[in-house]
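User: For documentation purposes, I need each entry recorded in a consistent format: the amino acid sequence on its own, followed directly by the corresponding structure tokens. There are two entries in this batch. Please keep commentary to a minimum and don't merge the entries.

Assistant: Recorded as requested. Entry 1:
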Amino acid sequence: QVQLVESGGGLVQAGGSLRLSCAASGRTVSQYAMGWFRQAPGKEREFVAAISWSGGTTYVDSAKGRFTISRDNAKNTVYLQMNSLDPEDTAVYYCAAKVFFGKVVTARSPSEYGYWGQGTQVTVSS
């Protein structure tokens, strides 16, 4: 079992930056692939980025070049640095984890992740 707690959300103007953090407890996250998802009002939860235990990263096309996912296994924490934010990025952002020992995470469906945080709100004003 692993528990995930997100932080770092908030209100930012378009073009601004935020860094989200996901602190894990219960088990070391080095055994898990970690992902970030987001859900806007009235929309389905969608994949944003994922990182393997070894640091291999995967991004949704809209996040490439703007967002960076990283992890610090010693701190049991995963980060999502978000730059050049757009009002379309407004959503609740969720951290998720799944047991995975490969180098590149291919799982992009929420159903493939077994552990979730409570979410943190990101609002980008125009």
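Entry 2:
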Amino acid sequence: QVQLVESGGGSVQAGGSLRLSCTVSGRAISLYAMAWFRQPPGKEREFVAAISRSGTFMKYADSVQGRFTISRDNGKSTVTLQMISLEPGDTAVYYCAGDHRYEEATVATVKGSYDSWGRGTQVTVSS
């Protein structure tokens, strides 16, 4: 059974940067389309970024386009979310998600498209 574990969350001031990592174990990460979602306080979980199985294709939410970068290293079984120019509105619990059912070019943005989830890591951005 696949396991996803997030790390790298923390507290930063607006304008700062953080780098989140998701380590995958139990199955080969190369089989999985991967994504990051986040859940702000009192709100629904929302899409942030997604990456295809080989890393060729990526998609971003409009709110993070140009500030966040998703990448993966299948050899190290990790997916990374580099976040710069952070804003208070980025405050949320960030979740790593994966699914092995898709073809290589698939980049899914809907949370129901993913069947494996980590427990989340808190990101807090203060003004």
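Summary note for entry 2:
The two ends are 40 Å apart (CA to CA).
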